[in-house]
Amino acid sequence: MIEFTSVTKVYDGRGKSAAPVVALDDVNLRVEPGQIFGILGRSGAGKTTLLRCLNHLEPVTSGTITVNGTDWTSLTDKQLRSARRQMGTIFQHFNLLGSRTVADNVAFGLEIAGQKKDVIVPRVAELLELVGLPDKASAYPSQLSGGQKQRVGIARALATDPSVLLMDEATSALDPTTTEQILDLVKSLRDRMGLTVLLITHESDVVRRICDGAALMQDGRVVEQGRLLDLVADPDSRIADQLIPLGRANEELTGPSQLLSFVNEGIGDPLLSRFTRETGIDVSILGGSVEQIAGHKVGRLRVSFDHPHGDVDDAVIQDWFREHQVTVSR
Ligand SMILES: Nc1ncnc2c1ncn2[C@@H]1O[C@H](COP(=O)(O)OP(=O)(O)O)[C@@H](O)[C@H]1O
Ligand SMILES: [Mg+2]
Fold first, then answer.
1. Does residue 46's CB lie within 6 angstroms of at least one atom of ligand 1?
2. Is residue 88 in contact with ligand 1, taking CB distance under 6 Å?
3. What is the value of pTM for the model shown?
4. CB 37, CB 51: distance < 8 Å
5. How far apart are the CA of 200 and the centre of ligand 2, in A?
6. Could you give all domains of the chain from N- to C-terminal order, each with its CATH number?
7. pLDDT, tens only, 223-243
């Protein structure tokens, strides 16, 4: 649905003598249709720039961005204006117009798109219903809570019926309970409308709760990306380590360790005691836990194996766990 190929973005330095800033450095990124995809990374990593290049608020310096098969970097201004309507954006600070009612805020994009009033009025009512604010049409933004403001932001973003929703730290200004409600709303909208969602966040909770995939950015580069359920099986994945920390393996103390990862299967079963009973191999747990990720129960455990009466046979370990739907990796 969204594909970045070798995208680079260099800003002219701020101020007279400032050096240029490489905000995106050879970014390659792939987001599948219908995915909720998280962009993680520290402040200054280039996350907002990536979003602004995607919705064409910033031109790229080099590389291509395709959305739904169309190369966005080669569109004319006119084509771009209509292409942009395929994309709705939600902001951290809501960016609502204080002098307009809720209904008029939601209507704004439709007015710009040249829609007539008899189209706009029922559409706005439908959108406010969709985000759970049917009774707030004539309220002003200052009369709303943060969560309600963000619901208006979502309704406004969806007004032109986009296929992609972009969220830049859209829940960072909200308390945890409101954040969960907004995330659940986004997820149900994705399920109902088949949206593809790209969201920037610095909170692992957000990723665990709704993302299917994620990318980690560092110094303008995408250093890791993939489906979360694939990443959790990778002992070197930094994204997985943020979602289910394993703790640092101190192999001088423990000897060689391995990662067991499992999705849904096996959780709640006494798998490790069965393994020891059936193979005679002891298991020591060194770190890890079980979390809910993208609607699945996912476990990651760092363990070491020991055979009290002989050698540990790696093949036995691999076969036993594979049979029980657990991935073993070094
Ligand atoms: N308009 C701009 N002009 C010059 N430098 C910018 C501009 N916008 C962002 N930058 C710089 O680009 C880098 C990436 O910024 P940004 O994309 O906002 O990162 P993030 O959203 O991950 O915090 C930072 O070093 C930032 O200072
Ligand atoms: Mg940012």
1. yes
2. no
3. 0.90
4. no
5. 8
6. 2-231 (3.40.50.300), 244-329 (3.30.70.260)
7. 999 999 999 888 889 999 999
